[in-house]
Amino acid sequence: MHLWPCCFGGPATHPLPVLRRRAQRCLRGIFGAAALAAVCLTSAPAAFPVTAVGMPPKRPPTDAAVVWFRKCLRLHDNAALVEAVEVAPQHVCPVFVIDPHFAPGSVGVNRFAFLLESLRDLDCQLRKRYGSRLLVLRGKPETVFGSLLQTGEPVLKGKPRLLMWERDTEPYARKRDAAVEKLAEENGVEVRTFAGHTLYDPEEAIKANKGKVPNAMPAMVALAKLLGDPPMPLKTPAKLPSLPVGVPARVDKAFSVPSLEEMGYDPPPEKSSFPGGESAGLLRLSEKLKDSAYICGFQKPKTRSTAFNPPSTTGLSPYLKFGCVSARHFFYGLKNVYARKKHSQPPESLLGQLYFREIAYLQGFSVPNFERQAGNPACKPIPWGKNPKLLAAWEQGRTGFPFIDAAMRQLTRVGWLHHLARHAVACFLCRGDLWLSWEQGRDVFDKYLLDADWSINTMNWLALSGAAPWSPPFFRVYNPAPKMDSALNVQDPEGNYIREFVPELSKMPKEYIYTPWTAPLEVQKAAKCIIGKDYPRPVVDHAKVSAENIARFKRALSETKATGAKGSSGASSRSAKRPRKA
Ligand SMILES: Cc1cc2nc3c(=O)[nH]c(=O)nc-3n(C[C@H](O)[C@H](O)[C@H](O)COP(=O)(O)OP(=O)(O)OC[C@H]3O[C@@H](n4cnc5c(N)ncnc54)[C@H](O)[C@@H]3O)c2cc1C
């Protein structure tokens, strides 16, 4: 990897070994020892000669197309890959860049493990089908491409002819891609980009809708009617031009998919029931599609929030998030099953769920400051409080409400939870009980969810906070100790979900499993769980705080109406200070 000039900026006035030692110190600080080892393998003089002024020598271009995988970790319905084949360069280089922006502090171990599994699967498919491989580079994409687009280093002997990728509408990605596009332009490398992460190209969809962005299902259904069915998914290419001769052998060790440990993670506590990758995602989808009664009868509000092994919904969200499964492939799979039978309709149907996803992307693409309250026209200004202790109790599943704690511990242990469990914990954090900002809750979800998705996560947190135009009425609050007939659709009178994720309560009789603080002391002793000692007392009195919060919310709305204020700058926002992650 060509990192020397970027580490030192100016001309090389020092002998090579001195420069190399300095570069190593700099790299170790930035990426850690493992990445340094990978970089050092290619920064040897033979692989990358440094000239007297520290700049790489000019080399003739290579007739190669670089396909940059980011999301879209798949071979099916991959427009960039198909185009790379059609353009018929001599060589195609499939590349993934491990960006230090996504690091242990901001991405939980389960999602990172899912990503690495997805990369391993992609690498394996590329080898098996085409005799190619995935080249995994590390570093800031702007730095990595600074070198690749100038000299071809570390994977080519000269700069490539073309660079291709699937577009990503998240703010961080848009900024990153604009920088890489600029580098390509400066180096005379042609860039071609494609829409493929959603059913419709967001830009074209909004244009066709005369600038209007749907924020509810009827508007989305109308837009889908206007646009017609999305483009058919593209077939997996039968052939792929090879890597340049010598590349696989030269880069084999340094550019393989790293292990979790190399990336600074301890292994996850248990084997995931969501193995990463296109193969696992397509298998999961095809299994679901085989069950036409399930597909045609799917009604989201009737799916059970406490079902976890297997879940009552498809569990496809992590695969859609990373693009291991194409949304269009999913759409046509549903259409095929629906064609033969009477079936449920949006918003409750599975097609309705894909349309919710589409709405989130259209909103995220067009609403300014979508990720925060301040300056966001889709967010009413609510003066949320600050309380790090309560936030930590919620994040760690120590609120004293077993259903809330089970869901939060499922989030941190597994990385996935049912939609209605997400409703319960999100309502509890904001308007229901703790009166804390949805931005803080969204950030916690963003760290731990396997399917953490900038657009979808934000749209749903806005909804549950009560502050968005698409929110349910703010005064309708979930009970954190839900009854069996509540809208949270718990359907678990034995409390098996709680027993799984909150083992302290595993022996609590079912009469008290949702409200253990009401159990007589003898019952607590027999269950080996004394409330206040082995498991916390409720951190709030739900009846009292929910009534207070409804009154506060009402007051905030009437003050906004009186002052005509739009958006707010009052909410604390981690995300306002740093760019969000994919
Ligand atoms: C507070 C909160 C935060 C959320 N954060 C995320 C997130 O970061 N990433 C994410 O993918 N989903 C998020 N959701 C939406 C939803 O809960 C998940 O998509 C769903 O539970 C995933 O399980 P599934 O794949 O079995 O869903 P299914 O019901 O099988 O739905 C199929 C697909 O449709 C899409 N979908 C379903 N529900 C929604 C929805 N409400 N909004 C947008 N798309 C939807 C997803 O891609 C999902 O995989 C959030 C919901 C809430 C209430």
Automatic annotation (TrEMBL):
Descriptive protein name: 6-4 photolyase
Signal peptide: none
Binding of FAD, residues: 313-317, 451-453
Gene Ontology BP annotations: circadian regulation of gene expression; entrainment of circadian clock by photoperiod
Family designation: Belongs to the DNA photolyase class-1 family.
Taxonomic lineage: Eukaryota, Sar, Alveolata, Dinophyceae, Gonyaulacales
Pfam families cross-referenced by the UniProt entry: DNA_photolyase (PF00875), FAD_binding_7 (PF03441)
Segments traversing the membrane: 29-48
Keyword Flavoprotein found: yes
Obligatory cofactor(s): FAD
Keywords: FAD, Flavoprotein, Lyase, Membrane, Transmembrane, Transmembrane helix
Residues covered by the Photolyase/cryptochrome alpha/beta domain: 63-199
Molecular function GO labels: deoxyribodipyrimidine photo-lyase activity; DNA binding; FAD binding
Cofactor detail note: Binds 1 FAD per subunit.
One GO CC term, this protein: cytoplasm
Annotated PANTHER family: CRYPTOCHROME, CRYPTOCHROME CIRCADIAN CLOCK 5 ISOFORM X1
Region (Disordered) location: 558-582
Annotated organism of origin: Lingulaulax polyedra (Dinoflagellate)
Composition bias, Low complexity: 561-574
Annotated site (Electron transfer via tryptophanyl radical): 384, 438, 461
